[in-house]
Structure formats: C-alpha cells, structure tokens
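Go through this fold for my students:
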Amino acid sequence: MKKKPQLTESEELLPLVKESVLGSDLQVLGVAQVKQLISLFGESASKTLVTLHQAIAANDLPEVAKQAHTLKGAAGTMGLMQLHQLCLVFEKISPRRFYCWA
C-alpha cells in the first residue's frame, strides 16, 4: 500500500475562503457592493485564466508569471486563499528575470 504524500508545514492547505476578508468587506461596503465585487472578480478572473492557459500552452513563462501574479492579487483581495496559494506557485516557477510589467 502506497503512503499518501504528506504536505510540509509550509505547504499546508489554506482555507478555501478567508471569511474575515469577506466579513470585513460586508461591514464596510455592504451586501450590494460585495456582490458587485464578486461579479467583477468573476469577469476579470475569467479573462486572466484564458490568458494564463494560453501562456501555459505556449510555454511563455514570463506571461505565465505575469498572469499568475495578476490572479494572485485579485484572489488575495477576495480572500480566496487556496487560489492565492496556487497562483503563487505558478508565479514562483516562472523565471523572475523575464518579468515584463508593461
């Protein structure tokens, strides 16, 4: 029987959603604004994911890093911690020396 690979302490899975982020946004912005933010995130993330998939298919590591960085920031702002963590991995595997922040 094979043992399941264990995550190291630094690789522990984060919560899917950091509820305190959404709770804070709800208190400050209200339900209507938070719904609008979620909608805008969905639209923006969809476009970013298309570009990210294209960059991965083209093996364009600088673009992979750029799109992962963009999605990571948006995910963090929304409290989507697992997505944020995943994007960080993509960002780190792409060579930093090729970043182009145009």
Remarks:
- The two ends are 51 Å apart (CA to CA).
- The chain is about 70% helix and 0% strand.
- The longest helix spans residues 31-57.
- Residues 97-102 have pLDDT under 50 and may be disordered.
